[in-house]
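The methods section describes the discrete structure representation at length, but only in general terms. An entry of this sort, consisting of the sequence and the corresponding backbone structure tokens, reads as follows.
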Amino acid sequence: MQIGTVLSQGWDLYKRFLKEFFLTAFLVFVVLDLLSALANSASGDGTGSTVFWSLIAFAVGVVG
């Protein structure tokens, strides 16, 4: 198998499934941004809550 063939097949898949890829990525990023905004607004003024919500936002970002 040649690299040109693999790249051509990969490009064809991206063109064929662009709509599905875009919608999936859009939904994932919307959920991640909403959770990050929620964590930011819930963190408050205390250092402990800020650290806790920062860890939650980090974990959600890694999973996403």
User: Anything to note?
Assistant: The mean pLDDT is 85. The chain is about 90% helix and 0% strand. The chain has one domain: 18-63.
